[in-house]
Amino acid sequence: MKDIIKIICALLFPPVAAFLQVGLGMHFWLNILFTILGVIPGMIHAIWLIVKNKS
User: Fold this and answer.
1) What is the DSSP letter of 53?
2) Contacts with 8 (C-beta within 8 Å, 6 or more apart), sequence order
3) Of the candidates 54, 23, 19, 24, which has an alpha carbon nearest to the alpha carbon of residue 42?
4) Where exactly are the transmembrane stretches of this chain (predicted)?
5) Rounded to 5 degrees, what are φ and ψ at 13?
6) pLDDT tens-digit series, residues 1-55
């Protein structure tokens, strides 16, 4: 259930979902960059983080 909420968050606010999954690490800042370059790459990266790092 938590993953579904994170995925919804990733679709609306990709950097927030990345922060919730990995904290203020490299992937968070990479997601900020992807989101600045385009929202779709930020969404894809955030969803990838959630699927890859099941907590």
Assistant:
1) T
2) none
3) 19
4) 28-51
5) -140, 80
6) 788 999 999 999 999 999 999 999 999 999 999 999 999 999 999 999 999 987 5
Residue whose structure tokens are 């990733």:
10
Helix (H, G, I), strand (E, B) or coil at 13: coil
Residue boundaries of the structural domains of the chain: 2-52
Q: What are the tokens at 13?
A: 């606010």
The pTM of the full predicted model, rounded to 2 decimals, is 0.89
Which has the closest alpha carbon to 55: 11, 9, 2, 12?
2
**Nearest partner of 46 among 22, 2, 1, judged by Cα:** 22
* Sign of the torsion angle spanned by Cα atoms 19, 21, 26, 30: negative
